[in-house]
Write a structure and sequence with these properties.
Blueprint lengths: L73 H11 L6 E3 L9 E8 L4 E6 L6 E3 L8 H17 L13 E9 L7 H4 L4 E8 L9 H15 L8 E8 L11 E7 L4 E4 L2 E4 L10 H12 L7 E5 L5 H9 L4 E6 L5 H9 L8 E6 L7 H4 L4 E4 L8 H8 L1 H12 L2 H8 L2 H8 L1 E4 L13 E6 L2 H13 L3 E9 L9 E8 L3 H14 L1
Parallel strand pairs: 1-17, 6-7, 11-12, 11-14, 12-13, 14-16
Antiparallel strand pairs: 2-3, 2-5, 3-4, 5-6, 7-8, 9-10, 13-15, 16-18, 17-18
Helix pairs in contact: 2-4
């Protein structure tokens, strides 16, 4: 996310939001009898304005603008872009503007007596302390303050990048608001934090492992189930000694608290391990999923690429009674979360569901055979070039696939390819229904984008091939305070009915 290391700027007027009261944070409850600030005082909150009013704004790299949080400037650019390609009904949804971030990865630097827990300044590895972040769920700020106290009391040394010394490198905070014992209106405010401590060692038997245990116990004693204010869900450790910028190592260990982290989005219970990708803005993601479901026909066959733990595909399986759902993900760590989520799917889900640990950039069309709908949710860089090329030529590929299906010898030859065998070995299959007799390829492509610039390029490439037309596009305010938007775009095969009618009308008027 780009930083905002700006010089002092002239005062700007406060711009009033034109959003519903539900988009503004609810007033905080009375302060709990604890020294930890679980919610900022009401006097410091914007009431009905869309001003950030964050004390860390000019130094922190997280947020990029202070005003009009409900409608970042990039929305106007997106509206103009879609108009330029013939789509006039682009919409934009904004929900919670403050305390929306339920996942945060923070660097830990400084000293044991004066720890810094926050984000890097843009272009540097200088950490900015952000104890009062307005984007963070209030429980994350409370957990950060508790961690700070633990570092000081136990003399835990933060990591030093120059000397490669110290113990605590990073911390990941993830909030779950899944608590069915509470009324739905209270669950968000009373979320609980899963804390992952990234320790500078190869494993739990390395030097200073006693300090890791002591720090975990401190966090649990003061924020766990037996504490006065129970807001810690669990404590995990990740072990990392690499000198690059990768945050997590490959070794994880559960230390204290609950092992399973559950959330409810898109109408299903989902399980997310600390190693799995999860959306930072859970509420906005839920809104997007429910919008997406409307574009998938009941009983459809779906392929979900860049699937992670399969949240999108599984939500469609439950909501649209899909005939089959095939999730393809390169990160093998997501498999366990997928399996746990499947275990809580409604009994009414009776389709063929599978998860495959594979690189979908290798012969991507092979994953799409037999699917009606393709869903892609790529990283910020956008679609792999091989997938874009395959989608541009999907018509000719479909004709080829149908002709191959007529030759059993050809099909046997296809099945012997090593990458197919490896993918099958690394797959998880639920259900017994088969869709192999259908050799057609998707007629609908649903693209979920977190990178606006890469989406524009992918969109232009798809439309230039004439294989697809853009039918709908919606924007979502996943990251208030930034110039980032999440886009849900629905493409259909062919030129599109509207364009064909317009072409016929022009031809008729020419005579």
């Amino acid at each position: 996310m780009p930083a905002c290391l700006l010089s002092a700027r002239p005062p700007s007027p406060v711009i009033t939001c034109r959003v519903s009261l539900g988009a503004v944070r609810n007033p905080p409850p009375p302060a709990p009898p604890s020294s930890l600030p679980l919610d900022p005082p009401a006097a410091n909150l914007p009431s009905l304005t869309c001003a950030l009013q964050c004390p860390h704004f000019q130094s922190c790299s997280g947020c990029t603008h202070e005003f009009n949080l409900h409608r970042p400037i990039i929305v106007d650019e997106a509206t103009d872009f879609f108009k330029s390609i013939g789509l006039l009904d682009f919409t934009f949804d904004s929900c919670r503007l403050y305390g929306w971030r339920c996942r945060a990865k923070l660097a830990v630097r400084g000293t044991s007596t004066s720890p810094l827990i926050g984000l890097y300044q843009e272009g540097t590895h200088n950490v900015v302390d952000i104890p009062h972040c307005k984007a963070h769920h209030p429980r994350i700020n409370a957990a950060v303050e508790l961690l700070r106290q633990g570092i000081k009391e136990l003399n835990v040394e933060p990591y030093d990048e120059d000397d490669r010394t110290g113990d605590l490198r990073y911390v990941q905070m993830a909030v779950t608001t899944y608590n069915t014992s509470l009324p739905a209106s209270e669950r968000y405010r009373n979320g609980k934090v899963q804390i992952t401590l990234v320790w500078n060692s190869r494993n739990e038997k390395s030097p200073n492992s006693d300090k890791l245990e002591s720090l975990a116990e401190f966090l649990w004693r003061n924020g766990g189930s037996r504490s006065r204010e129970h807001y810690i869900h669990s404590v995990w450790a990740n072990f990392q000694t690499s000198t690059n910028n990768v945050i997590f190592g490959n070794r994880w260990r559960h230390l204290l608290g609950e092992t399973d982290f559950w959330e409810n989005v898109g109408g299903i219970d989902i399980s997310l391990a600390p190693s799995s990708f999860g959306q930072a803005n859970a509420r906005a993601f839920d809104i997007l999923l429910r919008k997406l479901q409307k574009y998938v026909p009941y009983g459809a066959s779906v392929t979900d690429l860049y699937a992670g733990a399969g949240v999108i595909g599984l939500s469609l399986a439950a909501a649209r009674k899909c005939r089959s759902v095939k999730c393809v993900e390169i990160n093998k760590e997501s498999q366990l979360s997928f399996e746990k989520t499947v275990s809580r799917l409604p009994k009414s889900v009776d389709g063929n569901i599978s998860w495959h640990n594979a690189d979908n950039s290798i012969e991507p069309l092979s994953w799409l055979v037999g699917s009606d709908v393709l869903v892609v949710d790529p990283p910020r860089k956008g679609l792999d070039s091989s997938l874009v090329h395959a989608l541009q030529n999907i018509g000719s590929a479909e004709r080829k696939a149908k002709s191959l299906s007529e030759s059993s010898s050809s099909m046997v030859k296809e099945e012997k390819r090593p990458w197919i065998l490896r993918a099958k070995e690394a797959s998880v299959q639920i259900g017994s229904k088969s869709n192999s007799e259908n050799q057609s390829l998707p007629q609908t492509l649903i693209y979920i984008s977190c990178g606006w610039e890469s989406f524009k390029e992918d969109c232009k490439s798809l439309l230039s091939s004439k294989a697809w037309h853009l039918e709908k596009a919606h924007g979502f305010n996943f990251f208030p305070g930034t110039q980032s938007i999440e886009v849900l775009a629905v493409f259909k095969r062919g030129q599109g009915l509207k364009k064909k009618k317009l072409a016929k009308k022009k031809k008729k008027n020419a005579f």
